[in-house]
Amino acid sequence: MPVAADHLQTCTDPFPGVQTDLYGLEFWESSVPIIDLVALHGPRRSDIIKHLAHACQQYGFFMVKNHGISEKILSNVMGTAREFFHLPEEEKMQLHSPGDFTSPVRFAPGIKDDDQNIVVSRESLKFLSDPLENYVNLWPTNPSSFREAVAEYCVAAKMAEITLTEAIFESLGMKRASMDKILVKLEQNVSFNYYPTCEKSNLEHTVGLRGHTDPSIITMLLSDEVPGLEIFQNGEWILFKPLPNTLSVNALSNGGYKSLLHRVAASSDTERLSIVSNCYPSKDTQIGPPKELIDDDHPAIYKDFNYKELYDSMWKQRPHDSTRLDPFKVCAD
């Protein structure tokens, strides 16, 4: 939902295109809110919590600055990811496990969907990362920087995710006991995503990634500066242009905060790279709207279930959008 121009004022942010509304909430190009994560630890915390609630309710997608992850860590992990995707195809394919979504490390090449006559060009490397000591020795050793650079990023990203998730829970009005039941069991997995260029003549039948929503509590995106991500707002697809050293986030809850539909466009000009960190509950965590958020005016939309049920179900559901949650709705009975 773009903000009316008369509610915005240009600020002194070093990036042109960043504006501030009358309540102190920053926006990138009038359409994507920006949350200052470090301000959660200061006297402006209550204001930032309100900004976060507004961003989640009205947009479902926002950017985070001052997230505590150093430029060096961000640069190292992006460089390592790019090196990985430039390895010989046969080496990457050694990590390919088609149809096995339980493998702790799995590479997926681009695919051709003959039914829809479309090529999905994204290559991805998905891997489990939490607890780190259980998985780091299963990660690739080529490039040689992989395990060290990625481990540093995962640790720093997890800290930012916990801070952000706690703030999102607070913005919903959750009590401390309800927060802790989930926060102590938060886990993380990571996806490296590479979008190669394609021939101009093939653009009509090529996408980087089809439209989908994410089933995690929050999804944190680190992207290079190449546009390509498109978000669905107000009935139309909007091209998102990332800002340097910021992270992009979407979140969901009991229907109040909805995970945003998004996709990636293919390009004939420039390759694109992104790193996604998914923050989600452990598979034995019971999921359901906290009792303090439910009343006559705000009835439960979803039943109680454990996260493993959702995780197992989501791979069977097509399309990969919010309808994947339909079997868990109260009215599904």
TrEMBL record:
The keyword Oxidoreductase applies. InterPro entries: DIOX_N, IPNS-like_FE2OG_OXY, IPNS-like_sf, Oxoglu/Fe-dep_dioxygenase_dom, Plant_2OG-oxidoreductases. One of its GO terms (molecular function) is oxidoreductase activity. Keywords: Iron, Metal-binding, Oxidoreductase, Vitamin C. It comes from the Eukaryota. It holds the Pfam family DIOX_N. Residues 185-281 form the Fe2OG dioxygenase domain. The keyword Aminoacyl-tRNA synthetase does not apply. Belongs to the iron/ascorbate-dependent oxidoreductase family. This is Fe2OG dioxygenase domain-containing protein. It comes from Salix udensis.
